[in-house]
Amino acid sequence: MFHIRNLAIVWVAVFAGLVLASVTHGMAWAKVFGIDYLFHVGIYTLLAFLSVLLFRRFRTVIVPVSFMMAAALCFEILHSTVNGSTFEDVDYLLNNFGVFIGAVAASIMLRLHGDGLIKGEHIRKRAPDGHPYPWRKL
Q: Which residues does 45 contact at the CB level (< 8 Å), separation at least 6?
């Protein structure tokens, strides 16, 4: 069971680390040993996983996944312009692969555990008039 505040703190810390990594030069040994590719997949898997859990009230993974895919593109462009390196398609594809893995994992966990997975936030399942999704009234 996760607490919503802790998830948000971890998400902000990981996102800040990603911003910092995007504006600094990478380490040469990371590319040699393939750790760079693991970093790309791992960081975006974690961010997408946390994003889907944090923004689950949208009842869809499209919003957090779209945000993470746009962020992946922005960070790759930022990394290439700040560091003077070239835009690498492989890095962007690995970022999106990580987003896909994280979104699927979070969706499976939410499907198995429901809203009982996260404490600290109460999602009203039904409106007072009994409609299951009050924001979708016609």
A: 98, 99, 101, 102, 105
Shortest CA distance to 68 belongs to which of 45, 37, 36?
Answer: 45
Residue type, 102: G
Structure tokens at 26: 């990478």
Residue 50 above 50 pLDDT?
yes
- Joined together, the tokens standing for residue 107 give 């969706």
Burial readout 55-77 (b: 16 or more C-beta within 10 A, e: otherwise)? bbeeeebeebbeebbebbeebbe
pTM of the model: 0.74
Write the pLDDT tens digit of every residue in 76-123.
888 778 777 777 888 889 999 999 999 999 888 888 876 666 665 554
* Three-state SS at 37: helix
Rounded to the nearest 5 degrees, what angle is found at the Cα of 109, between the Cα atoms of 106 and 113?
140
Contact criterion met (CB below 8 Å) for 92 and 131: no
Tokens of 18: 């990603």
**End-to-end Cα, the chain, rounded Å:** 35
